[in-house]
Amino acid sequence: MPSSSQKQRPLAGALRLDWNNDAPPPPPAPIAEAQEASQLDPSDDEVDEAIQELGLGSWPRPDATEKQMKEAGQAKREVAAHKKRALELKRQRKERKMEKKRLMEQNERAQEEQLKVEKEEEEEEEQKFAAMMQRRRNELQEKQFLFRRFLMEELGNLQVRDAWDKRIFE
């Protein structure tokens, strides 16, 4: 392999390329003149075969005029625009439906959360009420006990009948 200081020589018989590539590109090849397509005779069997192969509504038809082809192209563009609008409307309906569904789910979650909070508050109130009733029972039992003890101390050996537990104290 030659060193980088040596220049490579082109091979014998090979096309010599310009090493600096500063030259402008060559001009483009001349464009061939468009050849006019041969029009088929409408009575020709080839026209019938082409229509049968392409289908009745297919364009371009071999016997179509330029005006008919332009009208067909315009109709295709209109159909494409209509389809595009229909797809856009369908997408928008789907988005609205999804947004509505999302809002309904969000409202459901909010209602469930509200019911949960209300239930917790109700349970807390029940617990507070139960605790208050237990305190009152305890206070009442303590008062009954103190009253009995007072009666026992004051009355001594008298029999005191307890209306709640039907026991006799001495």
Question: Structural class of the secondary elements?
Answer: mainly alpha
> How many helices?
2
Query: What's the mean pLDDT score?
Result: 77
Strand order of the largest sheet: 1-2
What does this structure look like?
- Residues 1-130 are annotated as: Disordered.
- Residues 63-119 have a biased composition (Basic and acidic residues).
- This protein is mainly α.
- The chain has helices spanning 45-54, 66-155, and strands spanning 160-161, 168-169.
- A two-stranded antiparallel sheet has the order 1-2.
- A hairpin with a 6-residue loop joins strand 1 (160-161) and strand 2 (168-169).
- The model has no long low-confidence stretch (mean pLDDT 77).
Brief summary of the model shown:
The protein is mostly helical and 170 residues long.
Task: Give a topology summary.
Elements: H1 45-54, H2 66-155, E1 160-161, E2 168-169
Antiparallel strand pairs: 1-2
Primary descriptors:
2% strand; 2 strands; single chain; 170 residues; mainly alpha; 59% helix; two-stranded antiparallel ribbon
